[in-house]
Amino acid sequence: MRLPLLSLQAVLFLCAAASAAGSDPQRVLLLYGSQKDLPMNLLIDSRLRSNFREKLSDGVELYSEYVDVSRFPDKGYPRKLLEHLKDKYSPRGLDLIVVVESVALDQLQLHRDWFFPDTPIVFCCVTEAECKARTIRPGVTGIPAKLDYRPTLEAALRFHPGTKRVVMISGASRSDNETMEDAIRNFRPLAGQVEFNYLIGLPMADLRHEVARLSADTIIIYVSIDRDGAGKFFIPRDALDQVAQTASVPIYGYYDSYLGHGIVGGFLASFDIEATNAAHLGLRILAGAKPQEMSTAESTSCAYMFDWRELRRWGINEESLPPGSIVRFRDPSFWDLYRWHVIGVLTLCVVEGALVLGQRARARRTERERTRAEERFRLVVESTPNAIVVVSADGNIVLVNSQCEAGFGYRREELVGQPVEILMPERYRAEHPGFRASFFASPLARPMGAGRELYGRRKDGSEFPVEIRLTPIQTDAGLLVMASVIDLTERKRTEKSLQASERRYRTLFEKANDAIFLETEDDVIIAVNQRACDLLGYSHEELLAMKVPDLQAPEVRGGLGTVIKGELAKHQDNPFEGLDFHRDGRRIPVEVTDAIIEENGKRLVLSIVRDISERKRAEEARRDLAHASRLAIVGELTASIAHEINQPLGAILSNADAAEMLLESTPAALDEVRQILHDIRKDDLRASEVILRLRALLRKRELEMQALDLNAVTSEVLTLVRAEALRRGVVMETDLAVNLPAVRGDKVHLQQVLLNLVLNGMEAMADIPEAKRLAVRTLVNENGCVEIAVTDAGSGIPPDRLRSLFDPFFSTKKEGMGLGLSIARSLVDAHGGRIWAENNFGVGATFHFTVPTGMQKPGKAPADMENVPQELTA
Fold first, then answer.
1. How do residues 110-122 score in pLDDT, each as one tens digit?
2. Alpha helices (H) in 384-445, listed in sequence order
3. Is 97 in a helix, a strand, or coil?
């Protein structure tokens, strides 16, 4: 067996070359979208490494990493992995990133702003359709792979002219679905020729059953299976092996890695050519070329390739193959098998010496071929990113690669010839010989220890989690097994972090003070927390059997499915109010905040529901208090209101008497009667307006927001208190701003605030002997709000009471209840404004309140009011 000797020589050569290198090497990251041990990735990684090392020798360091999103679909996983890779490679830096597959390219483009943003990127194995569906960012280049599916199907239909049905097979992963969609688009022009059926996302057992009973007029197009419908992950080539075992009709595919695993063949994409193209672009960039200045063309990586054994099985004549077709796995003919024997016998008859020369030539050629095969095998083993251990049937190590040395801490010569159990924890060693014997008795490529957690043991005795895949190798020395060992330490650490995150989320979900619901697009409740059960009086099981509309009052019923379809835009992340039914029939006022979330490709609604029963009761109490305040204000104006009503009523009576006298005169003075009737109508309207204003103030009501002119609101209030001002001897002065912008507010509530301030101003001047003047002014302040100021000429407000002026039950009046100003503040707060008071420089005080217009700037209350509470507390 010569492989160990060759490997040792190669290691010595590499070490010598490394010691001779003087300058810093260029560093290249090879980032793959899928798992390590895919045949595609092994082939691409080998080809990329051989191309870079052929040109740069020891002047390049190559690192391989794997995103593997198909097996780790958590939404936050790719970012965490890239953050880890950034921390890992930032100290050294990267000169180039080669990204394989569109799923890895998407992650790099998404996080390009922070993940090595200045490092050029070359993509590989990204199809032309995938490139067109994406915006390729600056600094990213590559040659799109043009996967042409139609030639495969067209060739298959020529080989099988009686075909009536084409069955297309793919798995359930996102990658499977994207590849299937691309193939379906390519086949649309052929839809009228044959019937297309689809076996997508089935469990493997069901899929094997379905392909076993297909009719003879059917062919199969195998697309890809990364994951089946039962959630089991596959290497697509291994999944094809299982499908081909039971398929009763010919199978065709699209990748050269499928050849030899059950497909007849087709117009197949070559990963070897894809990797070579990407390596050539990368070498040009490392030599100084700019990605944006490089011209790229479509890849010509496809060729007609066929399996000779499958051609014979299905009776396909090689002469019918497209020109230039490559036929593999051909069984040698009698001449191929025995030509040297025949030549030897014939030559022996002619001249014995010629036979000797021929035998020697054949021996040298065989030796050279064996040497080249060993070298190719060694190159593949050394270039793979996994630790490789080749073991004989008796359990001794025959060959290891440098990754194995690095991972287990041994030198190569310490391992070769030793029992493989040296790399295992002691607890596994006793039972391993039995497992090894079982494998050699049935040597099939498969994972080791399926369903069990496996660990490797380093030279220092430390253990680390591993995943092992076994592959049988037939050699001149007999059957060997190659074990590909993947270190799972980083993956386990990531999984543990994700599990901890899930536990934190579950704790927050269950311990939240608000009820939380998770619903589908069809309003089906799929998750609730304990607070939801406590709020509505149902158990978890009962709520999970219900739909959202079952819990809503009829007037708000509609279901959150409609929210997903468009209504959510009106209140997403903004609370809205509704009514829910308790199990006992009670209506519970609630405040709901909704947000759309994505989970496994489905749109769901997360609803946070807060019980606002106490808030509603407080609001009702506030409305009652405001109503009572208005009643009290109207009580204070009783005499003035009576005067306001009696005045027009008296005028109506006098005018009626005069009209009666004029009608009795001869001749009747009808023109004067008409003028009197006009005066009666005017006085009647005046009395009616007074009564309507009183009714509006006395009615208990909700806030009714509308566009208002505060100059008009102010004028109506001053008209209402005009008689009261005359009675008290108060001179009313107004200064109303011109072109005052409109505000949105409740007219009656704002009138109540102003009326309270005006009456308080009159009350403040009750005991002063000099002229009593009350000024009301409107303006637009520096913050863009409309401001109303009421200034009196009274004795002012004691400074120590200024801060408490708007507190509930605080009053400067001897007989006051202390509710008027606190209610006024709550009404102003409800409009988004503020209210404050300040003493004048001379005499008296000024009360201000503001109402926003929607154009205001952020403002600050006066220093005296910074600590005044902004909520009315009952």
1. 999 999 999 999 9
2. 402-408, 412-415, 426-429, 432-441
3. strand
**Using one digit for the tens of pLDDT, what is the confidence trace for 11-36?**
333 333 343 344 689 999 999 988 88
Q: What are the residues whose beta carbons fall under 8 Å from the beta carbon of 349, sequence distance 6 or more?
A: none
Rounded distance between C-alpha atoms, residue 330 and residue 308, angstroms: 5
Structure tokens that stand for 779 in this block: 């303006």
Q: What are phi and psi of 401, to 5 degrees?
A: -105, 180
The β-bridge partners of 469 are: 447, 484
The phi and psi torsions of 452 (rounded to 5 degrees) equal -115, 155
DSSP β-bridge partners for residue 597: 604
Structure tokens that stand for 126 in this block: 């990204």
Provide the β-strand partners of residue 473. Answer: 480
Alpha carbons 818 and 732: distance in angstroms, whole number: 25
Q: Report the C-alpha gap between 850 and 805 in whole angstroms.
A: 17
Residues of the chain above pLDDT 90, percent: 30
Phi, psi torsion values for 190, nearest 5 degrees: -95, 5
Nearest 5°: phi and psi at 822?
Answer: -65, -35
User: Which residue in this structure is represented by tokens 């593949």?
Assistant: 380
Per the CB < 8 A criterion, the answer to whether 523 and 560 are in contact is yes
| Token pair of 791 as six digits | 């200034």
Query: Two tokens at 60?
Result: 């390049």
CA–CA dist 467, 456 (Å, integer): 9
- C-alpha span between 837 and 788 (Å, rounded): 12
The stretches of 188-331 forming alpha helices (DSSP H) are 204-212, 236-246, 271-286, 308-313
pTM of the model: 0.37
DSSP 524: B
- When computed from its CA atoms, the radius of gyration of the chain, rounded to whole angstroms, is 45
What confidence category does residue 694 fall into, taking pLDDT thresholds of 50, 70 and 90?
A: low
